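Consider the tokenized backbone below.
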């Protein structure tokens, strides 16, 4: 965990240094190819800062009733912020590329290429470092929500893409977009050095379009978490588990069934089971937890209620007497 923070902090410092050099040089030579990378790196540094803040906040474990789960969604909020920021950065670069394509200015390709290659090298190092974490699905930048055994059980049932920590995913996509910008600056410098007219504008347009498309999946996933959507990829398994609850001896109905993603790695559920008179409510609860645990839900609240005499039809709406567990 702390190693990831240190990697993120080091890359933040390196990106800030490259940003200062690129901005000063691009202003000096008046070259939009360099400005493409420099303008994006402003948002790149901002995005890395947001990721650091989100990772730190997600560690907070508050005992206050106002934040009963602490700030575990800070990672998701940081991922959403970086996804939206990345989209609008791509849109900004797109319109800037159109504007500069109307009045193309000649650049100094030989000097532009050197700084662009340095920036690209830093981006590739960051991409390789965070890419390993990203594709390994190593979990959150902050403190894990559950024990390793529980996370392992959930990992068996949730899709890999939806289990990725959104904060880490936002960092990876930001670095990937930065790499595209740096690579675009290198490509435009090489092509202009070879006398290809309009190469800078064409490359800038293509890069900006790619940057706009990159964060769409991340924004969708983070939005689903905040809208308390049931976990993607688990709908059928959850439906099967809920039907299986009616097969527990003594259960005649269920109601108020809710499952949602607290974070990308943590699924929360609540439900109420109605049982016949004389049934051991604690045993029913244990069986229900086992069924739901098999579906990958390890954080669930089960309320058991007893039906009044004369109402025993399975699955019906029945008058109940509440037994809290």
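A designed sequence for it:
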């Amino acid at each position: 965990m702390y190693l990831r923070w240190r990697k993120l902090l080091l890359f933040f410092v390196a990106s800030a240094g490259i940003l200062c050099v690129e901005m000063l040089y691009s202003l000096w030579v008046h070259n939009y190819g360099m400005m493409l990378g420099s303008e994006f790196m402003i948002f790149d540094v901002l995005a890395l800062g947001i990721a650091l803040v989100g990772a730190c906040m997600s560690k907070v474990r508050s005992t206050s009733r106002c934040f009963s789960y602490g700030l575990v969604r800070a990672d998701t909020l940081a991922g959403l912020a970086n996804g939206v920021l990345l989209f609008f950065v791509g849109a900004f670069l797109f319109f800037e590329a159109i504007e500069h394509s109307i009045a193309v200015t000649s650049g100094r390709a030989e000097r532009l290429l050197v700084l662009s290659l340095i920036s690209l090298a830093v981006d590739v190092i960051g991409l390789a470092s965070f890419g390993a974490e990203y594709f390994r699905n190593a979990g959150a930048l902050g403190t894990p929500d559950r024990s390793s055994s529980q996370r392992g059980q959930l990992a068996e049932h949730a899709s890999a893409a939806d289990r990725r920590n959104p904060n880490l995913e936002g960092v990876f996509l930001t670095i990937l977009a930065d790499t595209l910008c740096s690579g675009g600056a290198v490509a435009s410098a090489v092509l202009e050095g070879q006398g290809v007219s309009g190469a800078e504008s064409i490359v800038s347009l293509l890069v900006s379009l790619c940057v706009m498309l990159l964060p769409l999946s991340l924004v969708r996933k983070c939005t689903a978490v905040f809208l308390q959507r049931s976990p993607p990829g688990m709908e059928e398994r959850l439906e099967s588990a809920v039907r299986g609850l009616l097969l527990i001896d003594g259960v005649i109905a269920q109601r108020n069934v809710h499952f949602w993603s607290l974070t990308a790695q943590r699924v929360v559920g609540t439900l109420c089971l109605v049982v016949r008179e004389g049934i051991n409510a604690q045993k029913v609860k244990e069986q229900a937890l086992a069924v739901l645990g098999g579906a990958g839900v390890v954080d669930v609240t089960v309320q058991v209620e007893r039906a009044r005499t004369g109402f025993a039809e399975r699955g019906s709406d029945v008058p109940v007497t509440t037994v809290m567990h």
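Confidence is low (pLDDT under 50) at residues 138-158, 310-325.
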